[in-house]
Design brief:
The chain contains 15 helices and 23 strands. The protein is of the alpha+beta class and 535 residues long. The strands form eight sheets. Strands 5, 15, 16, 17, 18, 21 and 22 form a seven-stranded antiparallel beta sheet that branches. Strands 3-4-6 form a three-stranded mixed beta sheet. The protein has a three-stranded antiparallel beta sheet with strand order 9-10-11.
Length: 535
C-alpha cells in the first residue's frame, strides 16, 4: 500500500531527465518520489530495515573519513533501535541489535502464501539462506524486519519527534519550504534560513549556533546551490553569487531496479481487493491491527548475492519482491505510480489478469555510473523550480553486466519443482524495441533492462563526505560544509558511496552519529572558551 502515497500532497513528485541509457519505458524520464511530510521518505517508504554491508562503512573510513568504519557506526545503529524480536536480540551474543532506542523494529505479523513458494524455490535452486541480513552475514535469502510496531508504520517522525514534541526548546514549523540559507554579513557564519510558510509568506529563522541541513539528497544540494554553494560554473550561469565553489549535486548514486514478473496459475493466494475481503480485512485491522493489512505481502522477502563470487560476503545484487494477486488491480496502480508507458502497463496487466504475479526486482547495489542534481539553467530560471535530476543510470558497461547477471540468476527458479507444482512461469513483457531481438539473449536482456529501469528511491551522495585531499568532497568527516562556517549537512547526501542495501536505517544512523558529534564539538568549544577566560 505504500505505493498509494506516491503522487499525493505528501510527495515532492520529482522527475529525472529522459536518457537513452535507461528508463526508456517510463513517461517523462522517470518518476522519483520523495517524502514531503514529517518523517520524510521514512514516512512513505516500504518500512524495510536494512543496514547494508560492513564493507560499505569500512570503505568510507578508508577514503579518509575517520570514525565512519563499521565498528564505529554499529553502536549508532543499535542506539536508535528498539528491536521487538527477543530471539534476534540474543543471536550472536547481542552483538548486532539494540533494545530501548526510539525506532521500533519488528517482524511483519502476517506471511503471504506466495512467500512460502519463493522460499522453497530458493532452497531448491541452491541459494543460501540468511537468518538476519543485518547480522554477521548479509548474503543470502530470507525475511526482513521492518520499522513497525503493532501492525503500524514507525516513521522517523513517530519514532524520534513525537516522544520529545513537548520539549520547551523544540519548535517545529509545518507547511514550511526552505528557499535559501544566508550568512551573517559581519561574522560570515551561516545564520539565516529563509522559508515560505503555507507557500506564500516569506519568513526568516535565525540560528544561534549553526544550521543543520537535512533536506535529503535532492533538496539539500538544491538549497545549497540556490544559496551560493555549488559549482562556480553552474552558479554563474544563473547569476547566483558564489559563496563556496564546491561540487554540490555531483556524485549522485541510486539503486536502480529492473523487475521480472513470475506468474503462478495454481496457488493458494487470495485476492484481498474484492469488496468483501476488503471490508473483512479492514475491520480486522481497525479492531486489533491484525490480518492481511498488518502484513506486507511478499515484500518482506529479501535476497543478497554476489553474482561473480558466490561465496563472497559482499553482495553486488539485491532482490526485492512484490505481489499482484490475480484480478486485484494492483499492477495498474503500480504502473501508474511508477510512470510506465501504456505498452508496459498493459503487458503487466495482462499477466495479473491471467494469474497471481510475484514481481522479483533486480537491484544494482554498487553502481559505477554517477548522476547529478542541479539547477535549471534556461532563460526561465526560477529558484522555486524543482531540482534537475540526471540519473546516470546504466551509463557504465559494468553496471549493465551486473544487472544482466542478476536477471540470469533468477531465471532458473522456473525449473524448480516448487514452481512447476504451482504452474509458475516467467511472463514475457511486450516491449516493441526488444521483441525484435532474440528472446533470452544478452542483447534482449540489455534492451529489456534499459526500458524497465526504475528507481528504488535511494538517491545519495550529492554532498559527499571526504578529506581535504578529495576534490569531490563537500563536507568533512564532522559533516561541516567545507569553506564556510556554521553549516552542516546531516542526511544521505553525505554518503561517499552508496550502501549495499536500503538507505533508511543508514540515514537514521547518520543522524544519531551527527547528534553526538555536534554535542561534542560544542562542548569542546565551551571548554576551550572557559579555559581562555581563566587565563
Amino acid at each position: 500500500m505504500f505505493f498509494a502515497i506516491q503522487k499525493t500532497a505528501g510527495d515532492w513528485e520529482n522527475y529525472a531527465e529522459p536518457t537513452p541509457h535507461a528508463s526508456k519505458g517510463s513517461k517523462d524520464g522517470g518518476f522519483w518520489p520523495r517524502g514531503r511530510m514529517l518523517g520524510g521518505c521514512g514516512a512513505i517508504n516500504a518500512m524495510l530495515y536494512v543496514r547494508g554491508n560492513s564493507r560499505d562503512y569500512d570503505r568510507w573510513e578508508a577514503q579518509g573519513n575517520a570514525g565512519w568504519g563499521w565498528d564505529q557506526v554499529l553502536p549508532y545503529f543499535k542506539k536508535s533501535e528498539d528491536n521487538q524480536d527477543a530471539a534476534l536480540l540474543e543471536r550472536d551474543g547481542g552483538r548486532f541489535h539494540g533494545k530501548g532506542g526510539y525506532l521500533k523494529v519488528g517482524n511483519f505479523p502476517v506471511e503471504h502464501p506466495l512467500s512460502d513458494i519463493f522460499l522453497q524455490a530458493f532452497d531448491e535452486a541452491g541459494f543460501e539462506r540468511t537468518p538476519d541480513v543485518n547480522g554477521e552475514r548479509q548474503v543470502g535469502f530470507g525475511q526482513l524486519q521492518g520499522t513497525i510496531i503493532n501492525g503500524t508504520r514507525c516513521s522517523p517522525a513517530k519514532a524520534f519527534l513525537v516522544p520529545v514534541k513537548d520539549r520547551p526548546n523544540l519548535h517545529v514549523i509545518k507547511h514550511a519550504v526552505v528557499v535559501t540559507i544566508e550568512r551573517d554579513p559581519d561574522t560570515k557564519r551561516f545564520k539565516y534560513v529563509n522559508f515560505l510558510l503555507d507557500n506564500k509568506i516569506l519568513k526568516v529563522a535565525h540560528a544561534r549556533k549553526e544550521i543543520l541541513l537535512a533536506a535529503g539528497s535532492l533538496n539539500t544540494p538544491h538549497i545549497l546551490q540556490r544559496s551560493g554553494i555549488g559549482p562556480r560554473s553552474l552558479l554563474e550561469q544563473v547569476n547566483i553569487p558564489v559563496v563556496a565553489d564546491l561540487p554540490v549535486g555531483e556524485n549522485l548514486q541510486d539503486h536502480l531496479f529492473v523487475p521480472l514478473l513470475f506468474k503462478f496459475h495454481k496457488t493458494t493466494g487470495e485476492n484481498y481487493d474484492t469488496p468483501r475481503e476488503l471490508a473483512k480485512n479492514m475491520f480486522q485491522y481497525l479492531m486489533n491491527r491484525s490480518g492481511p493489512m498488518a502484513g506486507h505481502g511478499v515484500t518482506n522477502l529479501i535476497g543478497f548475492i554476489n553474482t561473480l563470487e558466490p561465496s563472497s560476503p559482499f553482495p553486488d545484487i539485491q532482490y526485492h519482491f512484490f505481489q499482484f494477486e490475480k484480478g486485484s488491480g494492483k499492477s495498474l496502480m503500480f504502473s501508474e505510480k511508477v510512470g510506465y508507458n501504456e505498452e508496459i502497463s498493459m503487458s503487466m496487466l495482462e499477466a495479473a489478469t491471467e494469474a497471481d504475479v510475484v514481481m522479483a526486482i533486480v537491484v544494482l547495489l554498487n553502481p559505477k555510473s554517477r548522476g547529478r542534481v542541479t539547477l535549471e539553467t534556461g532563460d526561465d530560471f526560477n529558484e522555486f523550480n524543482p531540482p534537475k535530476i540526471v540519473s546516470g543510470y546504466l551509463e557504465h558497461e559494468d553496471d549493465v553486466a551486473a544487472v544482466l547477471r542478476g536477471i540470469r540468476r533468477m531465471l532458473p527458479l522456473v525449473e524448480t519443482g516448487t514452481f512447476r507444482e504451482h504452474e509458475g512461469e516467467l511472463h514475457r513483457m511486450r516491449i516493441g524495441e526488444c521483441d525484435r531481438l532474440e528472446y533470452g539473449s544478452d542483447k534482449y536482456w540489455e534492451c529489456y533492462s534499459r526500458h524497465m529501469t526504475l528507481t528504488l528511491y535511494h538517491p545519495v551522495g550529492t554532498a559527499k563526505m571526504g578529506p581535504d585531499s578529495d576534490p569531490a568532497a563537500v563536507v568533512d568527516e564532522r559533516l561541516r560544509v567545507k569553506g564556510v562556517q556554521g553549516l552542516r549537512v546531516v542526511d544521505g547526501s553525505i554518503m561517499p558511496t552508496i550502501v549495499s542495501g536500503n538507505t533508511n536505517a543508514p540515514i537514521i544512523m547518520i543522524g544519531e552519529k551527527a547528534s553526538d558529534m555536534i554535542k561534542s564539538d560544542w562542548e569542546s568549544k565551551k571548554e576551550s572558551k572557559e579555559r581562555h577566560s581563566e587565563l
